[in-house]
TrEMBL record:
UniProt cofactor(s): heme
Purpose: May be involved in the metabolism of insect hormones and in the breakdown of synthetic insecticides.
PROSITE patterns reported in the protein's UniProt record: CYTOCHROME_P450
Binding-site residues, heme: 543
Species of origin: Danaus plexippus plexippus
Protein name (database record): Cytochrome p450 CYP4S1
Amino acid sequence: EPNDLAHLPGPPRTPIFGSVFMFLGKSHSELFKMLVELPKKYGNRLVIKAMHRYILHVYKVEDIEIVLTHSRNIKKNKPYTFIEPWLGTGLLISNGSKWQKRRKILTPTFHFDILKGFVKVFEEQSRNLTTMLRKKLQESNVVDTMAIMSDFTLYIICETAMGIRLNADKSAEKMMYKKAIMEIGQIVMKRLTTVWLHSDLIFYNMPIGKKFTKCLENVHSFADNVILERKKKYESVANEDGGRRRLAFLDLLLEAERNGEIDLEGVREEGHDTTATALAFGLVLLADSEEVQTAMGIRLNADKSAEKMMYKKAIMDIGQIVMKRLTTVWLHSDLIFYNMPIGKKFTKCLENVHSFADNVILERKKKYESVANEDGGRRRLAFLDLLLEAERNGEIDLEGVREEVNTFMFEGHDTTATALAFGLVLLADSEEVQERLFEECQRVGPEPSVSELNDMKYLEAVVKEILRLYPSVPFIGREITEDFMLDDIKVKKGCEVVVHIYDVHRRPDLYPDPVAFKPERFLDEEKRHPYSYVPFSAGPRNCIGQKFAKLQMKVVISEIVRNFKLSPLVAGARPDLKVDLVLRPAETIYVKFYPR
Ligand code: HEM
């Protein structure tokens, strides 16, 4: 059966090797330029043959829609297998039922409600960044954008998703981790474009493969430490609480209080309701039971026994008094009741039960807040806790936890960091955009809430335009597992399809004056094909962290614009790019900062 792809245009193919030779010996930035040139030479659908593999590259919006929305062709293509030793088959790389199950477990951890809690961390880290920058500017105005942004995003992913604060004593490990990621990206690209390095046997026995192994050790040791640290904390809380699930009744109320859904008085009332119910059923002794203690998330230990006795006695007395009052008609009057010894005793008893209940609330609140504050005010079942809980329940093993931590630690920081680093270059080059943003920030005031951030339309347009010009993941690929039609051509099982996000975003027919930085493009509700803008991909394998990424970008960009004026080293200059796992500048990029 003839292969439709064999007839599509593309670089010259030799019978056995296909087109692999054209990539040999090229630098990473030369490779990037070559890739960008391909559609100009060969059109919107082209094929590169690598040995026996047909790799279809698509640039047409309609084709991109078909590929990305296909519900069963969700398997990632060959290059992803080269990063499997690092990320395992975590969410980015896995497929089939494993991917489905994991996606289901992890989706709630990036729910909008959870993001709202993360905004505090975004803000705090943005303030730390501006403080750091102000200090730094006393020596020099020239700032390495990638360096500051990758620190910023790494702090954030660790603090929000992992529940771990990276402080000064971890800076050596952090540096090693970041350096290893950069090297892994370069090595993987070298391997991809050098056909004999595809063989594991050859690759791992050459210096480049040995270096790769060394890098893996470094990234894994960093991630393992994060897991270990959080696991220790998680288990210490879980064990203290007798292995119960963490969001006990009282925690839920305290959480609601933190979120402003209920006030402290409400917490007290709810807490007392339980007492009241217990009373009503005459189950006074319930206060002594495991269940009540579990619900409240506290342990009544020996040093509380006096208070506990007092509480139980008070409850007994209250029961007796209420019955007496009920059956003695003149005691129904508050005026009489509270002025008689029985009423005074009642008041005393109330004080005792209230003080007991209040202490329970206070104690748990202290513990709850110490955890919540340590974790930067985030909600408690963040990403890593949820995984650890799933591990406790036997839904995932520790290796699975590792895969996801490695995946999210990388995807969750490096992508956003590069977008921000490029974004600062673009902003620096346009005073006009900075001023317009500054005005919008002034209208809202410092520390905008999530809904205020969402209302900042110009900020939204700026973030979109940054990701149009510099989509952190410039291309993505699939291995076809089920034949499908791309309009008139049949794409068969075993082929690979590559979607070029970067190139689509710069097509002049879709974006007039495509290389210009014009956030205004996204202000008018002009009808644009939805698949002409896909920085986060689309369809079933879209980015799980897109809201997280955009919100984080908005917070830090507005904080920077509020505090600094940026200017370029060379007006109008745009960095050369290179192939890597994410879009990277070929050289370090600098921007000048001036305090406002
Ligand atoms: C500006 C920042 C970001 C961009 C441009 C971006 C882009 C993308 C793209 C294009 C994909 C599809 C990849 C593919 O098909 O191979 C993807 C997937 C993914 N992203 Fe992001 N991403 C960003 C930030 C984040 C963040 C902050 C997180 C985590 C907190 C994250 C986690 C993931 C994961 C886990 C996947 C795989 C999802 C799946 O296959 O089910 N990303 N991202």
